[in-house]
Amino acid sequence: MLHIHFVKVDHESLLVIGSLGIQVSSSYASGREVTSFIEMSKIKDIVINEAVYLHQIIYYLCVLLKEPSEPNEVSSVVTLFQSSKPRLNCLVKVYRSCQEILSKCQ
């Protein structure tokens, strides 16, 4: 039961509100929900990154956060959709939508 409550993610969602920021939510099989928010002023960019894991390449969407003292530097990376691991073609659609919203804010 603990495995279902803490580990088994039922679905993940991403809500991008141009003037405010990004809300990331994960719903677990037990009904528990975890939500976090990233302010738009802290976001440098959203990118698709790739990693080599054993014999395969894994693509993931991540948010680059600005360094407060150096706005041109990246302070940290927040990985999105960590549990669902969508395919590259799905990530590209989400990426393009996010970039469209972010471009209107700048």
From TrEMBL:
Pfam families: PIG-H. It comes from the Eukaryota. Pathway: Glycolipid biosynthesis; glycosylphosphatidylinositol-anchor biosynthesis. Residues 13-82 form the Phosphatidylinositol N-acetylglucosaminyltransferase subunit H conserved domain. Belongs to the PIGH family. This is Phosphatidylinositol N-acetylglucosaminyltransferase subunit H conserved domain-containing protein. It comes from Xenoophorus captivus.
